[in-house]
Amino acid sequence: MKNFQETEFVIFDVETTGLSAARGDRMVEIAGLKIKNLEPVEKFCSLINPGRPVSYSAFMVNGISDEMLEDAPSRNEVLPQFMDFINGACLVAHNMRFDLGFLKHELPMVNQEEGAQMLEESLCLDTMPMARGLLPGLGSYALLSVARAIGVDAKQQHRAMADVMMTSKVFLHLLESASAKGIKDVGSLASLFGSRGESFKKQEQHKIALIQEAIEAAKGLRILYCGVRSIEVTEREVTPLGIVGSGRNRMLAGYCHLRGAKRNFKLERIVYLEALEGNKRLNIN
Predict the structure, then answer these.
(1) Which residue numbers in the chain have pLDDT < 50?
(2) Fewest CB within 10 angstroms: 78, 82, 110, 271, which?
(3) For residues 257 and 212, what is the distance between their CA atoms, to the nearest angstrom?
């Protein structure tokens, strides 16, 4: 999996007419910042005419009025351009579920079903759980609170590009924190802090296949495991015994030679695993 330096990221944010796409709310602004080699290289920002009024509560948050949107391009124009801008990059947002949910909801409305499927398969990182894991003890994990906690002097405007720029500063800081704790590649980050789309499922299926192969070949495993209570990566040698649980609680059951005891390891917190050389199973006696 690519390391942070090699990965192309797009940090994005949307503003909307309200809080529920399922109840008819629509995007009124979308913005993105492309990052290569951990440096910003390109921006995308556009208002979007939603074809419906902006709710008063939304206007009070983002200040985007119906008058501002009268001459704005429609989603039919903006969304295909934004999908071209993404172009397979790893997506980043603060509270990803909200922004990604609106984008997925509206893409089929402009005959962008393939784009919606691409989002399902893309790596997606959420800076909110990243901050919870890497910056424990904050009173609030709202974007402005996290930004101020790391020393960013900013006022939140609740406009898409302004929020993107704030998120980018938070994200780059969190990448440094992750790297210092032994989390070095984007796949590991996605396993710990990403959305559970198709890319996550493929990662999990790959881990399960490797574990099953090791069990059948009577081989031990070397894993890099990120603890649940503390975000620290440790190396373990494990004799795999099986896979237990389901969903977010699916785990590798095995004998941990570091602890000298049988342990369960959450699959989503195994950031790397490989079969040990040779066919001899590790002795657990």
Answers:
(1) 279-280, 285
(2) 110
(3) 19
What tens digit of pLDDT does each residue of 26-47 get?
Answer: 999 999 999 999 999 999 999 9
Phi and psi at residue 147, to the nearest 5°: -60, -45
Domain residues of the chain, as ranges? Answer: 9-186, 198-275
pTM: 0.84
Between CA 73 and CA 49 the distance in angstroms is: 6
Give the fold, CATH level 3, of 9-186.
Answer: Nucleotidyltransferase; domain 5 (3.30.420)
Greatest Cα pair distance, the chain, in angstroms, is 74
Amino acid at 71: D
pLDDT value of residue 100: 94
Integer angstrom CA distances of residue 273 from 47, 209, 247, 268, 281: 45, 11, 19, 12, 16
Distance CA 36, CA 24 (A): 35
In the prediction, which pLDDT does 70 show?
A: 96
Pick left, alpha or beta for residue 84 (phi over 0 → left; psi -120 to 50 → alpha; otherwise beta): alpha
Fold of 198-275: SH3 type barrels. (2.30.30)
